[in-house]
Design goal:
It is a single chain. With 247 residues, the chain is an alpha/beta fold. Helices cover 21% and strands 32% of the residues. It has seven helices and twelve strands. The strands form two sheets. Strands 4-3-6-1-2-5 form a six-stranded antiparallel beta sheet. A six-stranded parallel beta sheet has the order 10-9-8-7-11-12, sandwiched between helices. A hairpin with a 2-residue loop joins strand 3 and strand 4 (46-53). The radius of gyration is 18 Å and the shape is globular. The chain starts with a strand and ends with a strand. The structure holds NADP nicotinamide-adenine-dinucleotide phosphate. NADP nicotinamide-adenine-dinucleotide phosphate binds next to strand 8, helix 5 and helix 7.
């Protein structure tokens, strides 16, 4: 593998005690929206790396990553503490298949995320591709507490730019929150609340679904979608569901 790239933090925004976004100046790094790359720090003489999805669009010269502090984790607590001007390393090889080049055309593109699984969808929404290929795009984001509904300025900007073609549905599971649905995304797929909130049908003939986030959500949402006749999309066996196993 070729050499690590060296980047420099230009901003470390803390949304909550655990959630942070890093903006990084780095040499140009080609990737497709939805992909991830390994970020690393040198810790006690060892280069410690973990994957992070890009939040920025590929053409944006500043890289952006959204993370959660994994308690006791080797890297995220330190990344959360880095300050503007500090160095970090970026692997030269972005990868991952949660990308629109792997997703068939449809009328409606459903982007369903929990927690930091939002990141790759922000990158996708910042590109022109979904708007060229899908009549409507729904972003659903599930979090525990309302303060974890992050990137609202970005989401509002997409809503302003795309009008009725874009629908945002938020879910807050552990407290009542006005403007958000209660409970989990898979339950709302099952009982029709997600469709009612989006004002669109989640039908296998007209929908493609991308999932990213908590591994249990991926499983449960996959089952709820299977109950509606959807299956994983594979190049040799087309379906409607594209998933990134996030951690
Ligand atoms: P989370 O546990 O992913 O919860 C986010 C949302 O997902 C919550 O609303 C939660 O609902 C929901 N959820 C959980 N299980 C679900 C399921 N089976 N179906 C549908 N929705 C489900 O919370 P987080 O804050 O993003 O992350 C929590 C912890 O996960 C972090 O503190 C970290 O330790 C770990 N994590 C690790 C990594 C990693 O790379 N190692 C990455 C991200 C997160 P409920 O409130 O009902 O549970």
């Amino acid at each position: 593998m070729s050499a690590w790239l060296e980047g420099r933090a230009i901003e470390n925004r803390h949304w909550t005690d655990a959630l942070f976004s890093l903006r990084v100046e780095a040499p140009r790094l080609p990737f497709e929206a939805g992909q991830f790359v390994r970020l690393a720090l040198d810790i006690e003489g060892e280069r410690v790396a973990r994957p992070f999805s890009f939040v920025n669009a590929p053409e944006d010269p500043v890289l952006e990553f959204y993370g959660v502090i994994v308690p006791g984790g080797p890297l995220s607590p330190r990344l959360a503490r880095i300050a503007p001007g500090d160095a970090l390393y970026i692997a030269p090889n972005p990868s991952g298949f949660l990308v629109l080049s792997e997703v068939p055309d449809a009328e409606v593109l459903w982007l369903l995320a929990t927690g930091t699984g939002l990141a790759p969808f922000l990158s996708i929404l910042r590109t022109e591709t979904p708007w060229r290929r899908y009549a409507s795009v729904v972003l659903a984001h599930g979090v525990r507490f309302a303060r974890e509904l992050v990137y609202r300025e970005t989401i509002d900007a997409v809503a302003r730019a795309r009008g009725a073609r874009f629908r945002y549905v938020s879910f807050v599971t552990r407290e009542p929150a006005s403007g958000s649905l209660a409970g989990r995304i898979p339950a709302a797929i099952g009982d029709g609340r997600l469709e009612r909130a989006a004002g669109l049908a989640l039908a296998s003939a007209t929908s493609q679904v991308m999932l990213c986030g908590n591994p249990d959500m991926l499983k449960d949402a996959g089952a709820a979608l299977a109950a509606r006749g959807m299956k994983k999309h594979r190049r040799r066996s087309p379906g409607q569901i594209t998933v990134e196993s996030f951690w």
